TrEMBL record:
Protein name: Transport permease protein
Gene Ontology cellular-component annotations: ATP-binding cassette (ABC) transporter complex
Database matches in PROSITE patterns: ABC_TM2
Transmembrane segments: 38-56, 68-93, 114-138, 150-171, 183-202, 248-267
Topological category with respect to the lipid bilayer: Multi-pass membrane protein
Signal peptide range in chain numbering: none
Gene source species: Geodermatophilus ruber
Main location: membrane
Family: Belongs to the ABC-2 integral membrane protein family.
Upper classification of the organism: Bacteria, Bacillati, Actinomycetota, Actinomycetes, Geodermatophilales
Gene Ontology terms for molecular function: ABC-type transporter activity
Domain of life assignment: Bacteria
Length: 275
């Protein structure tokens, strides 16, 4: 074997699929090693469910408790935390500490970095949903979706997570570091939760706030999830008088496209001034 062939063999990269799996495993390990991220992303939604379920334990009519109504909103909020907030903060931190610059200089395909992030979001989203559903069922007697409602639950959660993940990646480029990203994104996420029907019935939110909320994915994700946890009679409480699942899919899909465009236009591997 010639030296040239031997050198090429020595630097040959593993299959792309293996690189993707390895990067996904790294992202998951890093997430669960960061206590703050785990507490904020996994524990906070559960705490909100426990607190609101204990304090606001009343009947909304049609035999539906507020906790049953709240389940859809808190799952949607948990998805936003696992995707938009987590991505914006973690990527901004990795950019400011030089991790992204280092990764961009390695032979690893850059797409592997994003695949790892997506796998992390999906895994954490599934875990959040499972924990919240378990607490809801065993602590508050929540009625789980049945039949085709599970299909609706899955596509709403996946589309919502995809849209918010892409937005989180785009937003990360606006922050100097993880702290500034947290200070920027967290208040916005909390405001959106209040006006999108997470902590209150959406019909109780002032009309002008409903209009603002309808511009963002969280409102539509919460509405789509309400359709699987609530009886159809409560669809009359929605602004359009129906669950509008077609519009939910359209809006979340459009946010996926917009988020992808923003990622392509704004994503940076290094801080400003060091490119």
């Amino acid at each position: 074997m010639s030296a040239t062939v031997r050198d090429r063999a020595e630097v040959a990269l593993p299959p792309v699929a293996r690189v993707y799996r390895s990067r996904a495993a790294v992202e998951l390990k890093e997430f669960f090693r960061q206590r703050e991220s785990v507490v904020f992303t996994l524990v906070f939604p559960v705490m909100m469910l426990v607190v609101f379920g204990a304090v606001l334990d009343y009947d909304l009519g049609a035999g539906v408790t507020f906790t049953q109504y709240f389940m859809a909103g808190i799952i949607a909020a948990g998805i936003v935390g696992a995707s938009l907030q987590n991505m914006a903060i973690s990527i901004a931190t990795e950019r400011s500490d030089g991790t992204l610059k280092h990764l961009s200089g390695t032979p690893m395909p850059k797409s592997a970095y994003f695949v790892g992030k997506v796998v992390q979001v999906l895994a954490v989203t599934v875990l959040i949903a499972a924990i919240l559903l378990a607490v809801g069922v065993f602590a508050y007697g929540i009625d789980l979706p049945s039949g085709s409602d599970w299909f609706t639950f899955v596509w709403v959660a996946v589309l919502g997570a995809a849209a918010c993940t892409l937005l989180g990646i785009a937003v990360s480029s606006l922050a100097k570091n993880g702290r500034s990203a947290s200070a920027m994104v967290t208040p916005i996420a909390l405001v959106l939760q209040f006006i999108s029907g997470v902590f209150f019935q959406f019909s109780q939110v002032p009309a002008w706030m409903q209009t603002i909320a309808s511009l963002f994915p969280l409102k539509w994700m919460a509405q789509g999830l309400r359709s699987v946890f609530l009886p159809d009679v409560l669809a009359a409480e929605e602004p359009a008088g129906t669950w509008e699942l077609g519009r939910v899919a359209l809006v979340l899909g459009l946010w996926c496209v917009a988020g992808l465009v923003l990622c392509v236009l704004t994503f940076r591997w290094q801080d400003r001034g060091t490119d």
